[in-house]
Amino acid sequence: MHTEEAIFSVLVGLVVGSFLNVCIHRLPKGESLVRPASRCPVCSVPIRWYDNIPVLSFLLLGGRCRGCGGRISWLYPAVEALTGMLFLLTMLRFGLGVRTIFLLAFLCGLVVVTFIDLDHEIIPHAVTLPGIPLGLIASLITRDPSPRDAAAGALVGAGLVYLVAVYAEVAFQRESMGGGDINLLAMIGAFLGWRQVFLSFFLAVGAGACLSLLLIATGVLSRKDRIPFGPFLALGAVVALFGGDGLIDWYWRLLR
Ligand SMILES: [Zn+2]
User: Fold this and answer.
1) 211 contacts 186 by C-beta, under 8 angstroms
2) Does residue 56 sit in the same domain as residue 85?
3) 237 Cα: distance to centroid of ligand 1 (angstroms)
4) pTM of the full structure
5) 115 and 240 within one domain
């Protein structure tokens, strides 16, 4: 890929990331995504376009509102930078094509779900429910994964979370995962197919278990705290998307 294409994909990602911030803050409140224009979270004064440039404005203004000087969360530029990076990675790995467009939409959905789940401990149906058919439609057009594989992926994804949720409720008498996680893993399966949805799930469980043990051991969390699982599923899906084929091949070679 040429340098200009790389820079262009990062810039598009940054601008899209700026819109994802709007989704992350407004979807849980049921507010419109288009109106009104972005406002300072402290003083509610509308943010001017030249103070709303992804990442750059945050750095230039030192993370403060130009009007009231109130602190702006570093999560805003972090979401923008993360989206820019994901756009670049996707272009580098898959090139410009129809599948890339669908994958970018998928990754945007994962970013929104991750930050809403971290903040509110809910996984918005407004993202995952349209995401499942979108993944299936993508498979009809791109054949990668095949439509049958995508449908199997959605079913396997939903089934895996459902089984673990039922098991955890019986075994530990507590709710581990909810309906939001079922829809999220079904969406991941619809986009990635059944092999990679398995991989996403086990990576998520592994990462979630390691981090939980670490946080409990260091006293940051207690045993009773509930850790949102959505971000781990999203992380597992990203790792499976970019490194999944290699990981699956490696695993099969281990078994042989
Ligand atoms: Zn302000």
Assistant:
1) no
2) yes
3) 37
4) 0.93
5) yes
